[in-house]
Write a structure and sequence with these properties.
heterodimer; A: 114 residues; six-stranded mixed β-sheet; four-stranded antiparallel β-sheet; 10 strands; 0% helix; globular; B: 112 residues
Chain lengths: 114, 112
């Protein structure tokens, strides 16, 4: 497709379970970002991939969070042992690799931990 | 470090009136500034950006923004608001860091 695709769109999971969120970026975009959006909050940066460089993981809130990007394309964000405070909308975005280009966002995955 | 402030959580305006959504930034050097809009249950959509050149930038849906270096501001404006403009608006800055920093967002409500 032409845009950034995220799946699933909604995920309800029990506390303590692991979840995987998927992001398909726009073809040819070398940069990929994950953000978290909680109710009433702004966008919290989680992790950034640029080409084949080591990812910037500085925004990951705990070691329960990890992400990978395979083949410079699809990315998976994994949350282990989910907690209720992990409930949020997880947004993925991609862009061309230059600093003056805009990011294109997927519609997000709404995660609810019960 | 780079940061963005959107001082208003909510802006209310009557349809047909001009609207302004405020954004100020802090960054070392010349900034790259962006505005995005988020409709309910959707991701963010790019509206416009300032990179260099003319301080008045025009974007999608009739929106424009003015870069003011002395006031470190990048306010979003539209001459005549529509009810369909009601949404959440985010300002973002990049400079040096390739990671955009976003403001907390401003909810725009346009009343019929």
């Amino acid at each position: 497709g032409a845009g950034v695709s995220q799946s699933p769109s909604n995920k309800v999971t029990e506390k303590g379970k692991d979840v995987e969120l998927r992001c398909d970026p726009i073809s040819g975009h070398t940069a990929l970002y994950w953000y978290r959006q909680s109710l009433g909050q702004g966008l919290e940066f989680l992790i950034y991939f640029q080409g084949n460089s080591a990812p910037d993981k500085s925004g990951l809130p705990s070691d329960r969070f990890s992400a990978e990007r395979t083949g410079g394309s699809v990315s998976t964000l994994t949350i282990q042992r989910t907690q209720q405070e992990d409930s949020a909308v997880y947004l993925c975005a991609s862009s061309e690799g230059t600093v003056n280009t805009e990011a294109f966002f997927g519609q997000g995955t709404r995660l609810t931990v019960v | 470090a780079q940061s963005v402030a959107q001082p208003e959580d909510q802006v209310n305006v009557a349809e047909g009136n001009p609207l302004t959504v405020k954004c100020t930034y802090s960054v070392s050097g010349n900034p790259y500034l962006f505005w995005y809009v988020q409709y309910p249950n959707r991701g963010l959509q790019f509206l416009l950006k300032y990179i260099t050149g003319d301080n008045l930038v025009k974007g999608s849906y009739g929106f424009e923004a003015e870069f003011n270096k002395s006031q470190t501001s990048f306010h979003l404006k539209k001459p005549s608001a529509l009810v369909s403009d009601s949404a959440l608006y985010f300002c973002a800055v990049r400079r040096g860091s390739y990671i955009p920093t976003f403001g907390r967002g401003t909810s725009l409500i346009v009343h019929p």
